[in-house]
Specification:
The protein is mainly alpha-helical and about 190 residues long. The protein has one domain: Ferritin (Up-down Bundle), CATH 1.20.1260.10. The protein has helices at about 20-55, 60-85, 95-110, 115-145, 150-185; strands spanning about 5-10, 15-20. Helix 1 packs antiparallel against helix 4 (about 115-145).
Length: about 190
């Protein structure tokens, strides 16, 4: 017989009933998202090493290397999130990040080494990754709040803000000089 214990949550004046099974299903979805992100961040560390080698401008190389180090810290923070919610930190293959990494590899192959066009391609690939991460961390931060995992929510918010800053930095590099320099390059 299903457990019919319910909890009450208020939202916009409406009372909403949630069963223990539903809460458990939401936690399962949350933890699955954490596992996905753990794999994604580990893959990103590898990709960022490739980006550093492939980039033309020193400023972009530095930005990628700085974000690689930051990403290693985000992996540690994800481990803390797992601990905070009473789960073992395990990674689950992230199809989205795998696809984004393959796309980036293709862009590197399709662009000429030492060109600003390659830097434009790398920034584009990196920003797609950042936007994926922003969406993922934002969702998980919200779910952590719904589930009452305040420590996890705080940790996820910290990473979310780092991802947003990286996205802004990449835009500044692109708009600051890379896009204009690439405009004048020929095949």
């Amino acid at each position: 017989m299903p457990n019919t214990k319910t909890s009450t949550a208020k939202k916009s004046g409406n009372t909403k009933q949630r069963t223990v099974e539903q809460e458990s299903a939401l936690k399962e979805l949350f933890v699955d998202g954490l596992k996905d992100l753990l794999w994604a961040e580990k893959q990103l560390v590898k990709s960022l090493k490739t980006f550093v080698k492939a980039a033309t401008s020193d400023e972009l190389k530095s930005a990628f290397d700085t974000h690689r180090v930051e990403t290693e810290g985000q992996i540690e923070r994800l481990n803390q999130v797992f601990e905070a919610v009473g789960e073992k930190a395990t990674a689950k293959k992230c199809d989205a990040m795998e696809g984004l990494a393959k796309e980036a590899e293709g862009l590197i192959e399709e662009t000429e080494d030492g060109t600003e066009v390659r830097d434009v391609a790398l920034i584009s690939a990196a920003q797609k990754v950042e936007h994926y991460e922003i969406a993922s961390y934002g969702t998980l931060k919200t779910l952590a709040g719904v589930l009452g995992f305040t420590e996890a929510q705080t940790l996820l918010e910290q990473t979310l803000e780092e991802e947003k800053k990286t996205d802004v930095l990449l835009t500044e590099i692109a708009e600051g000089f890379v896009n204009e320099a690439a405009k004048d390059e020929t095949k």
